[in-house]
Amino acid sequence: MKKFSQLAFPYIVWAILMLVLPMGLIAVYSFMEHGNSIIPFEFTLEHYINFFTDHDFLMILWRSIWIAIKTTLICLFLGYPVAYFITKTNEKTQNLLILAITIPMWINMLVRTYAWIGLLSEGGLIQKILSLFGLGNRELLYTEGAVLLGMVYNFLPFMILQIQTSLSKMDTSLLEASADLGANPVQTFRRVTLPLSLPGVINGITLVFLPSVSSFFIPKLLGGGQYFLIGNMIENQFITVGEWNFGSAISMIMAIIMMLLMMAVRKVEIRNKGGKEE
Predict the structure, then answer these.
(1) Are residues 98 and 172 in the same domain?
(2) Are residues 40 and 91 in the same domain?
(3) In a shared domain, residues 27 and 88
(4) Were both Cys, which of 117, 152, 189, 261 would link to 193 (CB 3.0–4.6 Å)?
(5) Which region, left, alpha or beta, applies to residue 243 given φ > 0 means left and ψ of -120 to 50 means alpha?
(6) Which phi and psi angles does 42 have, rounded to 5°?
(7) What angle separates helix 109-120 from helix 144-168, to the nearest 10 degrees?
């Protein structure tokens, strides 16, 4: 036990320095404002009140949540069939397909997003392809569709890998038993495969939704600054405006939203397992 504690000590120190301390500072900043010469900082809830009473801020928050929901749903509907197909192939093919999915992730996400600017820009490859079908005059870059495309492209592998892992762990004898009992493939999928893959689906939804709702450089690059999300708002408050206190308050609001989502996902996962929360 003592040896285990010693091995865990570096991680505990790292977690405190890199996670707990920054979050603590952000929380303190969010409740502070500049005071007078005697008391340099004063406690206040003004930053939170300003956020929840400003219609524009709430619209940006809703826009961020909505595009994260759309990104998650698209990744789910695209990722599940791909993951299902991968699990139906032999082991060698599975390894090759998983490698093909993960290889783009070896490249920095910022670089991969930059590549889409060239593809979606006027006279780019995608516009040339669309022009063959008479759709070449459409504006592709700096639109909501471009932002959504960039998010789906960057976060789809997380959904595929989570679902594929869950499906690969499934006991195939259950599928055989379902067929022996007279169930057709659709009934087997609905009553056996889908319920058993739900843990992977839930994990995939979490891994896609959380970075989508707080993403800032994808909307900045593919939205051209015209499509403003909550992540861009936080960046703007810290870097451009210099309102660290208000930016910290927005960061805390997003952190609470994410924690509530993770708690809800945890409850759903426990309910699907038929267990009770410890």
Answers:
(1) yes
(2) no
(3) no
(4) 189
(5) beta
(6) -130, 145
(7) 130
Same domain, 217 and 274: no
The mean per-residue pLDDT over the stretch 233-261 comes to 89
Distance CA 138, CA 135 (A): 6
Q: Which amino acid is at 230?
A: I
Distance CA 91, CA 196 (A): 20
Our count of domains for the chain comes to 2
Q: Which amino acid is at 226?
A: Q
Structural domain of residue 84, as residue ranges? Answer: 66-242
Q: What is the pTM of this model?
A: 0.85
Task: Specify whether the CB–CB gap between 116 and 154 falls below 8 A.
Answer: no
Whether 237 contacts 250, CB under 8 Å: yes
Would residue 58 count as lying in a domain?
Answer: no
Same domain, 168 and 270: no
How many CA atoms does the CB half-sphere of 133 hold within 13 Å?
Answer: 6
Using CA atoms, how far apart are residues 161 and 79, in angstroms rounded to an integer?
9
Between 42 and 153, name the one with better pLDDT: 153
Same domain for 193 and 119?
yes
In a domain, 46, yes or no: yes
Among the ranges given (12-16, 63-67, 100-104, 145-149), the one the predictor scored with the smallest mean pLDDT: 12-16
Category of 141 on φ-ψ map: left (φ > 0), alpha (ψ -120 to 50) or beta? beta
Query: Which stretches does DSSP call E strand in the chain?
Result: 32-34, 41-43
- Examine residue 123 and state whether it is found in any structural domain, yes or no: yes
Amino acid at 153: Y
